[in-house]
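Hey,
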Amino acid sequence: MSDRFAELRSSIDRIDERILDAVNERLRLVEELWRLKAELGVDRVDPGREQEIRDGLRALNDGPLTDEGVDELIAGLLTLTKREQERRAS
């Protein structure tokens, strides 16, 4: 394989590692937020906030990811976050 091929794969691997680190940090913060919400008697899930996240990230996105792709990414991330928090709570 070419050097460029190896370089591209290596760059993608480094990005994947950053994504993993960011998701783990997000999970830690959400866990803390959910504890605080429980103390305050606030619902864990806030559909308005979820829409704010989508809207904000769509506004920041300069592609090549489409708006639909941003929505799919966030939907998957929110689903994963909720599922992981439930797993950790059990």
